[in-house]
Amino acid sequence: MKFFTNKKVFTEMISYALVGTVNFLVDFSIVNILMYLFKIYSGKFLALFNIISFFAYSTTGYFLNRAFTFKSHNSSYVKYVTVLGISMLADSLILSTLTLYNIFNINKILWANIVKLFSFMVTGTACFIINKFIIFKE
Length: 138
Description:
The chain is mainly alpha-helical. It is built from 5 helices and no strands. Helices cover 81% and strands 0% of the residues. The chain is elongated. InterPro entries: GtrA_DPMS_TM (IPR007267).
């Protein structure tokens, strides 16, 4: 429980969330542009769109987290991208699977974006813990 009451950790979590918001906007924008251009809103091609957006948001996130969140100069870009790559695969699996099951029968574009937000939040939480204790450890 001490982990969540530590001021430094709390500040890192807030900063990570802000960087995550920037990453999400980059990711969300690229995926939506690709959905619009190709008129594909569900299934395995969303995983491909996710992989394309991954390259943009992973690079942005690494430099922002290194400079502002964890203030680390000893971190490894390769390790960071590996963690994010695994996260992106999980995110792509969630996205490509859940978009096939529009249980609320809402607009397919809205459903794809709701699933995208959900998958990003789930994988983002796991990434914070891994980045905090492995990639950017002091």
